[in-house]
Amino acid sequence: MGTHLPSTEFDGTAVDDQREADAEAVMGDPSAQMVQLLGPDGKLGADPVFSGYADRLTPEDLRGLYADMAAIRRFDIEATALQRQGQLALWVPLTGQEAAQIGSGRASQPQDYIFPTYREHGVALTRNVDLAELLRQFRGVSNGGWNPKETNFHLYTLVLAAQTLHAVGYAMGIQRDQKLAAGKEPDAAVIAYFGDGASSEGDVHESMVFASSYNAPVVFFCQNNHWAISVPTNVQTRVPLSNRAKGYGFPGIRVDGNDVIAVHAVTEWALEHARQGKGPVLIEAFTYRVGAHTTADDPTKYRHSDEEDAWRAKDPLSRLEKYLRAEGMADDAFFAKVKADGDELAAYVRRTAHDLENPDIRSAFANVYAGAHPLVAEELAWFEEYTAGFAGDDEAPAQHDAAAKAGH
Ligand SMILES: Cc1ncc(C[n+]2csc(CCOP(=O)(O)OP(=O)(O)O)c2C)c(N)n1
Ligand SMILES: [Mg+2]
Description:
408 residues; binds magnesium ion
């Protein structure tokens, strides 16, 4: 059976002209409707609303944003290498999306709560998640890897868009808590990250309806990186994704996702809006996945390298480097230090990843229910009998906390 996807799907020959024209309108040069402060040439422009937010960033903040972006890019390279060497089962690269992630993550405050997808390693860094711990899931030694309560950075969600529902539910919860604790605790907001492909999921629609109906303090942060594996964004939508917010009755902003200053400003504005009880905001960060979808993907099969080259010219790091140098805010010594710090981070991650041990699989039975459950106990008993039957495994399984908790 042939595909039902429009012919803009990569085939190199047949092209649906109308779809191409629509795609041009949606995906083509969007500058007229996109918030951009720092252009690819490293020059800082102005915006009537968001320049005021950008002005809050000190030279030290700007150097910090650069250092974070460089660190996470270095981490991404290291994790990709670890996967190629068989140390990780899979890796999900973020290169190209550093500004969208660092800019938005750095705009959040400690009391805010973040629901990521599976690619938000840059946001994880801004929330102080130990990046070596983050590799646990990709090494297959954990279903999560870190304790979300410590950082207010939720576990990765691989079921597309499911976390947008969790985020709105959480936002509605804190909205109620805040009423009770009025004035005693800082107001908090929630960020729900999702992709352009995930935007087609019913869960996103339901989330936006609920968020709007209840005026929930949630920022929907869509990283439009132009691809959902091999499907381009113009198959997901015929209008800019940010426009969809209008239908739900809250603000939608498209921001240059490779401009860390604009992303920071827009996210700060949106979080303030949410914390002040003014309701949800949709941010569409217009960016690009420069590498493969995952280490199991080969993008040369579905897109042209000239498209990748055009986006490399809009690189988020090089434009901030140009700006910092031109303004005299950073010199060679700063960039050398950033590189050395990145190498040190990579060495730490490599060392730690090698040592991440397999968990006792019985621990999986311990966390099914809060307390003991006869069915879980029965399944654990079966499992122990089964594993005891393997040659060489002649020791009876030791009594284990998990077994105790499962009621065994
Ligand atoms: C509900 C669901 N359907 C399909 C998949 C398989 N899948 C994993 S990633 C992906 C593409 C997602 O694209 P996008 O939302 O744009 O995010 P990106 O990977 O580009 O960051 C798909 C279809 C899934 N994980 N969950
Ligand atoms: Mg995508």
